[in-house]
Design the sequence.
């Protein structure tokens, strides 16, 4: 069984905005790891993230602990119990928020992008919806696990990439829920990174790798360096980052 040796999870409103519509959660008991990028504006996107996190975690902790549970939205023998429970949790949270949004005017509706990870033994199941990014640092090599589902996927133009992070999918708003599901066998020494666009869109992988490999920095300091670099390049967005060191 692989163990999480250390982690750092940080989120803030960034240097410009007054309200943080991002959120993060590291549930060590249930081995559930979450990062959210909410949208809808002040008092909407932030509340959407809170609602989604509450619904998702409540559903997941109920079903992941019951091997005889019936998955109400989805089931595939391709995934283990935790993977199926995670996918169902996302469907459930999405439906709850979407139903709430239908009662509201369009201007008052909110939602969120997300990366959710569930660990079982040595297998990490990750589900990405919307414009968040996940990466794996293993044996001095940094690679992307899940790409953002955003306008950036429609163009190869890297000029002002921070302007191309509009999500093409998300929880709570869209009728269909497009999930990018990945399973990763975790090895000792692996570092998993989840980031919202306020953190990743103004830095490149080489710069992130340099920060990761800085031996004089603790994990929380490495997250701070990611934020600092992004902000120095004009970040105007909320920013969140989760580092999971195995």
Sequence:
């Amino acid at each position: 069984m692989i163990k999480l040796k250390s982690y750092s999870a940080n989120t803030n409103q960034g240097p410009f905005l007054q309200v943080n519509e991002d959120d993060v959660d590291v549930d060590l008991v249930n081995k559930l790891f979450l990062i959210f990028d909410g949208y809808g504006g002040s008092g909407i996107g932030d509340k959407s993230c809170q609602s989604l996190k509450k619904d998702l975690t409540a559903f997941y902790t109920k079903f992941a602990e019951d091997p005889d549970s019936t998955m109400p939205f989805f089931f595939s023998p391709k995934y283990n119990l935790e993977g199926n429970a995670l996918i169902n949790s996302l469907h459930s949270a999405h439906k709850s928020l979407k139903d709430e949004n239908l009662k509201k005017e369009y201007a008052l509706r909110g939602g969120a992008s997300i990366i959710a990870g569930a660990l079982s033994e040595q297998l990490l199941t990750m589900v990405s919806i919307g414009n968040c990014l996940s990466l794996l640092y293993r044996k001095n090599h940094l690679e992307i696990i899940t790409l953002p589902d955003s306008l950036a996927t429609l163009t190869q133009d890297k000029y002002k990439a921070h302007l191309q992070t509009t999500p093409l999918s998300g929880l709570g708003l869209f009728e269909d829920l497009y999930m990018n599901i990945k399973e990763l066998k975790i090895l000792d020494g692996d570092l998993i990174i989840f980031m919202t666009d306020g953190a990743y869109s103004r830095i490149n992988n080489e710069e992130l790798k340099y920060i990761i490999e800085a031996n004089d920095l603790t994990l929380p300091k490495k997250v701070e360096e990611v934020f600092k670099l992004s902000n120095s390049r004009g970040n105007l967005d909320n920013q969140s980052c989760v580092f999971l060191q195995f």
